[in-house]
Amino acid sequence: MTAAAPVSLRIDFVSDVVCPWCAIGLKSLEQALQRLQGEVEAEIHFQPFELDPNTPADGVDVADNLKRKYGMGDAQLAQNQERIRARGAELGFTFDFNARSRSWNTFDAHRLLHWAEGEGGQRELKHALLRANFSDGRNVSDRDTLVAIAAGAGLDAQRARAVLDSGEFADEVRATEQFFQQLGISGVPAVIIERKHLISGGQPPEVFERALREIAATQRG
């Protein structure tokens, strides 16, 4: 008996590169897809969301910003960071909260990601940006840094520089952000499957696996 062909699903992964739960959600989703090899194939499109579009060029202090935004004290912040670090470690992602003290504006990073999709390198760049921010503490708003990250992800450095210096894809990124906001997306990660099934937050791999299997079953009919 011939095995059924895998079901192909479109996944829109709405996220920001300075969102720790987005890094966790992406690793969880990818682990779920690995478990479903032969059953489900996914075409992942990374969509822009800015946690704080008003972040200034020189960034903001991470700890102060989080404590102010969520009304946390030092002890609660430390507990939350340890929980995130442990979840990341389980999934093979390194969070080094001592490596960075500032959070950066991510609009230029999203412009690069938009460009990279057309180059076939969006997923690699997304991973590289998340590692640069959370594992290495690099400034993901600095254009020289972004060019180096893009090159390290296998993209053309000169073209990346031209995108950043020209303001290219700014309108497209803003329009996409507005599109998903109008759909009701107000927090990330938001994982939208086949444009109609929403999974919110940095869920464990098991949650993604179960949802993907159920959706694939409905696609098969």
List keywords for this structure.
single chain; 53% helix; 9 helices; globular; Glutaredoxin; two-stranded antiparallel ribbon; alpha+beta; 221 residues; four-stranded mixed β-sheet
Could you name the CATH topology?
Answer: Glutaredoxin
The string of secondary-structure elements, in order, is: EHEEHHEHHHHHEEH
- Total helices: the number is 9
Q: Could you name the ranges where pLDDT drops below 50 across 5 or more consecutive residues?
A: none
The appropriate CATH architecture is 3-Layer(aba) Sandwich
Q: Could you give the distance between the termini?
A: 19 Å
Structural domain tally: 1
CATH superfamily label: Glutaredoxin
> What is the approximate shape?
globular
Mean pLDDT over all positions: 96
CATH class: Alpha Beta
- Rg over alpha carbons: 18 Å
Q: Outline the biggest β-sheet.
A: 4 strands, mixed
- Helix content range: 40-55%
Structural class: alpha+beta
The tally of strands reads 6
Strand order of the largest sheet: 2-1-5-6
Share of β-strand residues: 5-15%
Q: How do the strands and helices of this protein lay out in sequence?
A:
Layout: E1 7-15, H1 20-35, E2 40-48, E3 60-61, H2 62-70, H3 74-91, E4 102-103, H4 107-118, H5 122-135, H6 143-152, H7 157-166, H8 170-182, E5 190-193, E6 197-200, H9 205-220
Parallel strand pairs: 1-2
Antiparallel strand pairs: 1-5, 3-4, 5-6
Helix pairs in contact: 1-3, 1-9, 4-5, 5-6, 6-7
Structure description:
With 221 residues, this protein is an alpha+beta fold. It has one domain (7-220): Glutaredoxin. 53% of the residues lie in helices and 14% in strands. It has helices at 20-35, 62-70, 74-91, 107-118, 122-135, 143-152, 157-166, 170-182, 205-220, and strands at 7-15, 40-48, 60-61, 102-103, 190-193, 197-200. A 4-stranded mixed beta sheet has the order 2-1-5-6. A hairpin with a 3-residue loop joins strand 5 (190-193) and strand 6. The longest helix is centred in the middle third of the chain and has 18 residues, at 74-91. The relative contact order is 0.20.
